[in-house]
Write a sequence for this structure.
């Protein structure tokens, strides 16, 4: 028997593989790679539409996701948006990569810590995890602190119509890119 919670956490961390996008050539089968972002997102939406309309059960789904948009759709949407922002030259590659990987690992860390340790351990360990990922990839301490802080704040609210898997990606990237545009943060190399 598969432990569905471990399965969910594992799948969440595997979502970091979205960054392999940057290894693809700029054109695949005569089509710019940016179009594959849209095609992939439409595939995810199609699977979700079929799941919701046909009552298909997917292993690892939480009970509350039965009649609403599943977490994997929110995460894929966030990652596709970030990749699109990179292609539109709005967000730098290092921030996009760091934010996708950060969201893939930090959310499960927060969930496990909250469940196993209780209290504010999830927020603390989530901050450390986010900070470490941003620092390893971006390498600028101010981005790492700010990105980690925003990510753990974005993860906290529980809203039925908006999932933290999307929030943990679009809120940090929006704030960091906006501050960068106004030259309020150090330059990225």
């Amino acid at each position: 028997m598969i432990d569905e919670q471990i399965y969910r956490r594992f799948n969440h961390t595997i979502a970091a593989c979205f960054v392999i996008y940057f290894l693809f050539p700029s054109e695949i089968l005569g089509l710019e790679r940016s179009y594959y972002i849209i095609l992939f997102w439409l595939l995810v939406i199609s699977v979700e539409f079929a799941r919701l309309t046909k009552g298909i059960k997917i292993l690892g789904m939480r009970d509350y996701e039965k009649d609403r948009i599943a977490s994997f759709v929110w995460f894929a949407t966030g990652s596709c948006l970030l990749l699109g922002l990179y292609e539109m030259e709005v967000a730098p590659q290092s921030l996009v990569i760091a934010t996708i990987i950060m969201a893939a690992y930090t959310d499960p860390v927060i969930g496990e810590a909250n469940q196993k340790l209780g209290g504010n351990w999830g927020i603390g360990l989530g901050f450390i995890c986010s900070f470490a990922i941003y620092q390893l990839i971006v390498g600028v301490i101010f981005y790492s602190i700010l990105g980690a802080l925003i990510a753990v704040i974005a993860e906290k609210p529980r809203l039925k119509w908006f999932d933290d898997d999307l929030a943990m990606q679009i809120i940090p990237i929006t704030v960091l890119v906006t501050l960068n545009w106004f030259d309020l943060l150090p330059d990225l190399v």
Summary: The first strand starts at residue 27 and ends at 28. The chain has a mean pLDDT of 90.
